[in-house]
């Protein structure tokens, strides 16, 4: 890859800049080098929340763990995991969901989030949206608020983002 800085890092820097200076619109480069603002919906979400340090990054097992901690560190916020069934110690809450080719169950520790906390959910891929929807339900069960969902890849034909409406799903790459 010829880029000096990873796309994801650029994207998070853009979030931060926009959050601090709410009116600014900072163009971002995508893979083909064109200037664009693919994360504008996330900008708009963040403009409503002046104190991002109250927020939590929630990442989904397994590949959400690659990106979630990186973003959490960038944003200066905490990270809480959602795992597949049977992986987390202590009392958990659980939601069953359906993927295109399987059924699964996602869990969170029941005290992972506080009521009113603002949450960004991250995963590598949005396909049918079943996984992100399950994550959304786990967050809401703890009376926390989902600011936005963030994925690296979105498979547009499966219309997964529709399951999350009106929550914004921001994707870096769409197929
Ligand atoms: O939008 P959806 O249809 O719910 O699909 C997206 C999910 O599918 C993949 O994980 P998978 O469940 O295959 O598990 P893995 O992380 O163990 O590969 C991917 O990492 C997402 O979490
Ligand atoms: N429908 C899908 N297509 C490709 N990869 C996936 N991972 C999970 N669901 C998927």
Automatic annotation (TrEMBL):
<keyword id="KW-0808">Transferase</keyword>
<keyword id="KW-0963">Cytoplasm</keyword>
<comment type="similarity">
    <text>Belongs to the purine/pyrimidine phosphoribosyltransferase family.</text>
</comment>
<dbReference type="GO" id="GO:0006168">
    <property type="term" value="P:adenine salvage"/>
</dbReference>
<feature type="domain" description="Phosphoribosyltransferase">
    <location>
        <begin position="49"/>
        <end position="169"/>
    </location>
</feature>
<dbReference type="GO" id="GO:0002055">
    <property type="term" value="F:adenine binding"/>
</dbReference>
<keyword id="KW-0660">Purine salvage</keyword>
<dbReference type="GO" id="GO:0016208">
    <property type="term" value="F:AMP binding"/>
</dbReference>
<comment type="function">
    <text>Catalyzes a salvage reaction resulting in the formation of AMP, that is energically less costly than de novo synthesis.</text>
</comment>
<comment type="subunit">
    <text>Homodimer.</text>
</comment>
<dbReference type="GO" id="GO:0006166">
    <property type="term" value="P:purine ribonucleoside salvage"/>
</dbReference>
<dbReference type="InterPro" id="IPR050054">
    <property type="entry name" value="UPRTase/APRTase"/>
</dbReference>
<dbReference type="GO" id="GO:0044209">
    <property type="term" value="P:AMP salvage"/>
</dbReference>
<dbReference type="InterPro" id="IPR000836">
    <property type="entry name" value="PRTase_dom"/>
</dbReference>
<dbReference type="Pfam" id="PF00156">
    <property type="entry name" value="Pribosyltran"/>
</dbReference>
<comment type="pathway">
    <text>Purine metabolism; AMP biosynthesis via salvage pathway; AMP from adenine: step 1/1.</text>
</comment>
<dbReference type="GO" id="GO:0003999">
    <property type="term" value="F:adenine phosphoribosyltransferase activity"/>
</dbReference>
<dbReference type="InterPro" id="IPR029057">
    <property type="entry name" value="PRTase-like"/>
</dbReference>
<protein>
    <recommendedName>
        <fullName>adenine phosphoribosyltransferase</fullName>
        <ecNumber>2.4.2.7</ecNumber>
    </recommendedName>
</protein>
<feature type="compositionally biased region" description="Basic and acidic residues">
    <location>
        <begin position="31"/>
        <end position="42"/>
    </location>
</feature>
<dbReference type="GO" id="GO:0005737">
    <property type="term" value="C:cytoplasm"/>
</dbReference>
<keyword id="KW-0328">Glycosyltransferase</keyword>
<feature type="region of interest" description="Disordered">
    <location>
        <begin position="19"/>
        <end position="44"/>
    </location>
</feature>
């Amino acid at each position: 890859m010829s880029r000096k800085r990873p796309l994801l890092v650029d994207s998070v820097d853009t979030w931060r800049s926009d959050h601090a200076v709410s009116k600014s619109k900072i163009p971002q480069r995508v893979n083909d080098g064109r200037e664009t603002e693919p994360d504008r919906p996330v900008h708009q979400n963040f403009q409503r929340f002046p104190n991002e340090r109250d927020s939590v990054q929630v990442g989904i097992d397994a590949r959400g763990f690659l990106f979630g901690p990186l973003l959490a560190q960038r944003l200066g916020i905490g990270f809480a995991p959602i795992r597949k069934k049977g992986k987390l110690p202590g009392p958990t809450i659980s939601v069953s969901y359906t993927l295109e080719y399987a059924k699964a169950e996602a869990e969170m520790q029941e005290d992972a989030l506080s009521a009113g906390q603002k949450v960004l959910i991250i995963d590598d891929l949005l396909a049918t949206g079943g996984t992100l929807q399950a994550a959304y339900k786990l967050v809401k069960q703890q009376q926390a608020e989902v600011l936005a969902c963030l994925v690296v890849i979105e498979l547009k034909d499966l219309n997964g983002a529709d399951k999350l409406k009106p929550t914004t799903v921001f994707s870096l790459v769409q197929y």
